[in-house]
Input
Amino acid sequence: MSQDLLNLLRDNGAFDPAPRHAELSDMHVPFDTLSGARNVEHALLAGLRAGNRIALLGASGSGKSSVVAYTLGPLVEGIFPIPVPVYPEPATVAGNGTEFVAHLVRTISRMLQATTPGLSRPAQQLEQRATAGGTGQRRHRISAGWRSAGLGPELAYELERAVSVPAPTAGQVLDQGRQILDLVAADGLVPILILDDTDRWLAATAPEIARVRREFFFTVPRLLAEDLGAAAVIAVHPEYLQDPGYQAAQGFLTDAIQVPAVPSAAAVGAVLARRVELARAAETPDVAEVFTPDALEVLYAHYTAWPSNIRRNILLPAHTALSLALDDGVDRIDEGHIMVAITS
Output
């Protein structure tokens, strides 16, 4: 293969170790596919559909965000994912149930503003339709025009009304949170709260780390289980496992799923081949067009010598090695390019 392909990959950022979050679902190669098992993506989706609260365990860069993005992506029917951003919210949101639910309500409000900017006109039409018959009842349907946002116009309208009601007391805030989740469930969807970037939220300044984690794990999982009854996936860094707060929270978490390691050099090749396919916008290529077999073996050895960090130990060296191969005027990335990328 000529350097044209390598140039194309570089120009399209094929091995970018920090892609946009919206791209993660397409880029992800399921661990279930790499391993031949069904204990990661399949197990996560099945558990969340059942209303469970699941801790997704994995180090930074191991693939937690990609697993969540793929599992709860836009093509998955019957669910309503609610990403609850935990950064840069103040640490008090992490350890106070009322503030957490108020943050959830604000998150829903922002989702509505971002995904349904023309809501006011459909809302007026729905209001007229609802009152015309005198029953005040509305049917919830998911229409094609709104499906990409996960919202039918009726549900969007109902949610807008729910989040716009003032809730001055702690009890009213909790009632508002429950109402939002009940509206989604009444529409035939499973509401799923996603707390994906807890690594950033719980990594407070040194004197505060232990307190913030303790308050979060003492408060939020119990709130989700007892007060909201909500399905949720919570990203958990391995270093949290020994925290007293996390250990106390396990009674409110239904299950824990470990993000596994990439199992082989061939699996590393599959991860990279998916990136090549997307950059090339063509059929799945033979990864041997881009990497020599020895290059993949060196990458895999580097990956397994460190904590399972796909971003730092597979994608970043591949990204750097691509530029090195182009500078050398060769057609493929070889083990020498990988070695220089690792040590540079």
In short: The chain has two domains: 3-19+263-343, 41-258. The domain at 41-258 is CATH 3.40.50 (Rossmann fold). The CA atoms of residues 74 and 343 lie 39 Å apart. Strands lie at 53-57, 79-83, 190-195, 231-236, 255-258.
